[in-house]
Protein: 3-hydroxyacyl-CoA dehydrogenase
Amino acid sequence: MSVTYKLVDDIGVITVDNPPVNALSHAVRQGLVEAIATAQDDSSKAVVIVCAGRTFIAGADISEFGKPPQEPSLPDVMAAVEASAKPVIAALHGTALGGGFELALSCHYRCALGSASVGLPEVKLGLLPGAGGTQRVPRLVGVEAALDMITAGNPVAASEAARLGLIDEVVGEPLQESALAYARGLVAHGAPLRRVRDISIAPDSYSNGQFDAYRARLNKRMRGQEAPQRIVSCIEAAMTLPFDEGLKKERELFIECRESGQSAALRHIFFAERTAPKVVGLSADTAARKVASVGIIGGGTMGGGIAMSFANAGIPVRLLEVSDEALERGLKLIARNYSITVSKGKLSEADAAARQNLITGTTDYQDFAGLDLVIEAVFESMDVKRQVFGQLDKVCKPGAILATNTSYLDVNEIAAATSRPQDVIGLHFFSPANVMKLLEVVRGEQTADDVIATAMKIGKQIRKVPVLARVCYGFIGNRMLRQYAREAQLCMIEGASPEQIDNALTTWGMAMGPLAVGDLAGIDIGYKARQALTDEQKGDPRTYCIADALAEMGRLGQKTGAGYYRYDPETRARSADPEVLEVIEAQATRMGVTRRAISDGEIVDRHILALVNEGFRILEEGIAQRPGDIDVVYVFGYGFPSWRGGPMFYAEQQGLARVYERICQLRDTHGDANWTPAPLLEQLVRENRSLADWVRQPA
Ligand code: 3H9
Structure:
């Protein structure tokens, strides 16, 4: 039974028990309606709704979306609760989210533990609160605060929720006893049936112009997304229409959202993020190794960011550098990053100091002797990395996990520099490592199962999204990125400007365009890497001649004030630079390319389908465990719009046959070298199968 009802003296107690997060499944909805009905006819004087387990209801059951709806609907449940002739009190703990918080808002009173938080995160799933949230929240907190809360979707701590009037009382543990006492107090005082629906919003509290301005701001902040705009319309309806009509409008727009491709994509990413850490073929009883101390080699931007990630999770870190000066620089960089976070009001000074104290420096490998996990973040050179691992092999205790942060190199070759390849693994962080959520975990051929299990567990512990990859050049993310970056270079030499390429892709939804990213990372990085290669290894010169020419002019990107763009030395604002166009034209002439007008559509197709095609190869070779993992890599590591679901979901949503056909067209125009359709894509189209079907039956 996921919902039970009992009388505790004169208070009816409804308990929802539907692990793991008490989602409002069909059984829960039905149970709630029945329990409220029961309470109407017994001797109870008030009713308390409480949840078992780690949290109050965390929302509608997302896995039910996309299936035929079953009665009672969530709005029916809310109506039944609100219409109760006896006061209903929600007792909140954990995270009361989405439909869960909407249920609380339909109750007549709300109490919560101080550790609880409430929120309407639907927008993060491409939805809007569809059970009265958009109508009730503005009645409690006003229009502007409701707009902010519901379009951002972030949780609000109990104390703040009480200040705003979203909850009535913050209570102590144990929750049920406190809630019973609170309910008895209300009964004793003859507290009225206080229905949020009856609160009116002053019709002139927010003007049409203010709504329009809010919409315009959202258009910038959440470019391309439909749900935030619909949320504004719902809140506008809350102000301008009677409650029931407002609810009708909310329902209509909720259904539009629920049926939208954007919501399907965001729901896919929600589940893909949670599936990614699960390792196929790893027995459930594989125990992770203990990780209570970590060593990082390299105190640069990357090493420092990794150190902060562990310190932020309360794990002590030893940071190793080659000299006292380098160490001091590294520790200063970390201190600076923490003080920036404090100055932004995101962390208290005391917490920042506590975290910083967890990071201590050394220049002596011997200090790593007792550590559980060591991560190398040194210069990207096989020789250097092998030397480091040889050292680690000598000093680290047996069973210590030895990890490399390489972004391209062969983890097996690095592991072979030790006498314990079973303990070696890749932990590929993304810069800035203390901010970016993606962690590629790269298993070598000999990496032990418990080392993989530990990496996935520790990844979650430091609040990253760990995704497992096998060894290949660039693993999942950077291997695909090479194809994407290639198209940026080719589109430029064939006729597009850097700003046209970047604009086409950011308008499509990418967080940044590839050339702006190139300027941020530094054009010299690829240039230096190419210096070590033969012409044959470098491949088609059209894919790097512009970058090389800019690097040789000293235009290395943002750090030199000029790269594909020019940067204002004061504000760092970027602008197009005619000099770059001259470079592009000169290189085109040198390569014998006649430049032409290229449409934005072609730019988008070429970049995104280059990712997709390589993604299919990665899947087929077993480099990634599942298509959703590739999507998670791109959304959390490369600024791919989450509302498009990642490259593989995007391909599926477009239809694999259409994607295949377009790739064939590109092959016919641009040649086989870059555009041969991936065999797996070809096979699925031939067999008229979807990726989802292939996941179920990979053969
Ligand atoms: C909504 O409410 C719409 C209404 O307005 C209107 C309707 C008409 N459903 O994240 P975790 C699963 S929309 C189904 O690892 P945590 C999750 O997949 C909803 N399943 O735990 C995972 O499964 P598994 C609005 C759900 O402690 C397991 O629970 N609500 C749901 O780190 C544990 O999840 C939201 O958007 C769900 N609603 O974080 C809240 N939620 O173990 C979404 C979770 O098999 N949920 N699961 O991989 C969350 O934000 C987090 O899960 C939460 C717990 C903070 C609650």
About this structure: The first helix runs from residue 26 to 40. Residues 659 and 686 are 13 Å apart (CA to CA).
